[in-house]
Amino acid sequence: MTTPAQTHSGVIHDIGYRPYTGPRLGRGYATRSLYVQSLRAAFGLGRSGKSKVLPFLLLGGLTAPALAMLAIAVFANLKQMPLDYAQYLSNFSVLTQIFLAAQAPVLMSRDLRHHVVPLYFSRPAGRGDYVAAKFAAMFSALMIMLSLPLLVLFVGSLLAKFPFGDNLVHLLYGLVAAVLYALLYSALGLLIAAATPRRGFGVAAIMGTLMITGAIAAIVRGLTGGYDPVPRESAYWAELISPSGTVEGLVNQLFGIGGDGPDKLHAPGSLGALVFAAVIALVTAGSYALMLRRYRNV
Amino acid sequence: MTVSTVIKTDGLTKRFPRVTALDRLTVEVQPGVVGLVGANGAGKSTLIKILLGLSPATEGTGQVLGLDIATQGAEIRERVGYMPEHDCLPPDVSATEFVVHMARMSGLPASAARERTADTLRHVGLYEERYRPMGGYSTGMKQRVKLAQALVHDPQLVLLDEPTNGLDPVGRDEMLGLIRRVHTDFGISVLVTTHLLGELERTCDHLVVIDGGKLLRSSSTASFTEATQLLAVEVTDHPTDRDFDAEAVLRERLTAAGLTVRPDGSRILLVELAGDGTYDTVRDTVDDLGLGLIRLEQRRHRVAEIFSADPGVPAEHQPQQAQESHESHESHDEQAAAVPAGGEQA
């Protein structure tokens, strides 16, 4: 028996202050941590139970029709999905818009409202890192929202033994649409949310912007003959007013999808596609630059 | 590794389109607890922002922990902690979650962040309540969390902006004690700003006084209090003669006795202490006039006096807060007034 008799077990020692000698992972790690935290926050994870309800309800709402189509496709012996992948996203785009309107202020307005932003900026990650992390988080959250139903549709098409190659190509078209939606929506939504510390204002402003631009685009398109029996091609330029119309028009024109009739929403011609793409790029980059400017003096 | 100079600025100037917030500020700060004193708008917060490398200086250079503020901002911010003046705590998360997140934002790996958070919250005196959402915290608890997030990554220097704001006298004393410990026990240098000089006298080793962006004075706390001691004297009215202006007559008599006297408020005279004999002179003069002595106590210089002593700053421009502190000290004096002499002034 060599058990030392002198040891005390179960005694709490006040060891005082211990300096930290471990690694300091610096700016890149801090930015990644902020990204992960923000992405989780976009789905209410790491926050109260109440704040998980809306994002998951919307994710469910966006995916449920795809599941229904999967079921129909498998059991009703269809020849193809009732909706094309990219078209699915535009038909249910209001859910994506609600998600953006509800969650972009969660990422931006809360930090402003509770004055947490100076705490970030007094740490290794700088302003650019902050905006980058938030943008990446919003983009990723939207990509999760948008690509989940596309994957469900794709699985459905495999189960129903639809042509594999054709579906894969159309899935890719859908994913391109998802990326464009996510880029444009993230940039616009976060920019608006960063303008106000009040979450309610942010929600209303984002929803309002997307809804009103959509309505104006439809009105202008109608006035210029876009809904005539034989629609005027030039009327489709009106879709540039609305962010969702711009993405939908570009994708439909690029890939020749979105229905066969002349009334499908599309960018007018190759010039139209070029302009629509340029507008998406410019608005995204411009909003991002404005966001950087917004945080220059916090 | 010891750093000989914690903060060093040379001709630091910050001009905004309409105001000059810092005007050729040259100051050197050694390790320890340093008080940065100035009225609201004196340039304290601007200086902190520049020191953190967040806002570029218009002119001049500066170093924090030997790192250049213009080019090594990120390195500085990794080694420095910052506690802002305003509220900065989201109400719906717990102190633990919040401080862990802030530790990770300072570059600490996840497990170290949790460990350091637990340690730091314990050191600032937050126990079971750290798991509750911060919305329900008292001001004192919130200030402790704010201090904890500034300390969690074990910085070499912390910048504390008005850490005693909004605290009651007991909370203020506890916070000042904690700040003292940050240096003595944790070995972290502290730069603490305030507009109340009185409370820094007990906490700081060194004081830097700025006003209107200019350096007014930078010296050890001891040399501030070594400066001419003042004696506060208050007497009763004349027992019989109602028209007798006790203060004016006493002032004349004391001046005649070779002492420097000036009034402070309506009833109190401040007499410069020229040695132990001054007490006797005051006592004898009051007795001679047949008056009662209500108060006879030592008083130190306060921020208001430093400002009014400067010829460039008229007395009217004394900060409101300095006046308030004065008044709160008066109420202490009332209790201490029963003690005839030498009542230690806080």
From TrEMBL, chain A:
UniProt keyword list: Membrane, Transmembrane, Transmembrane helix
GO cellular component assignments: membrane
Lipid bilayer topology: Multi-pass membrane protein
Superkingdom of origin: Bacteria
Keyword Transmembrane helix: yes
InterPro entries linked: ABC2_TM (IPR013525)
Residue stretches spanning the membrane: 53-76, 88-109, 130-159, 171-194, 201-220, 271-292
Domain ABC-2 type transporter transmembrane positions: 85-283
Pfam families according to UniProt: ABC2_membrane_3
Cell location: Membrane
Presence of the UniProt keyword Ribonucleoprotein in the record: no
GO molecular function, one term: ABC-type transporter activity
Protein's UniProt name: ABC-2 type transporter transmembrane domain-containing protein
Species of origin: Kitasatospora cheerisanensis KCTC 2395
Automatic annotation (TrEMBL), chain B:
Pfam families to which the protein is assigned, alphabetical: ABC_tran (PF00005)
All residue ranges annotated as the ABC transporter domain in the record: 7-237
Secreted is among the record's keywords: no
Record field: compositional bias (Basic and acidic residues): 324-335
SUPFAM superfamilies named in the record: P-loop containing nucleoside triphosphate hydrolases
SMART domains the UniProt entry points to: AAA (SM00382)
Cross-referenced Gene3D superfamilies: P-loop containing nucleotide triphosphate hydrolases
Molecular-function annotations in GO: ATP binding; ATP hydrolysis activity
Region (Disordered): 309-346
Keyword annotations from UniProtKB, A to Z: ATP-binding, Nucleotide-binding, Transport
Family listed: Belongs to the ABC transporter superfamily.
The name this protein goes by in its record: ABC transporter
Organism, as annotated: Kitasatospora cheerisanensis KCTC 2395
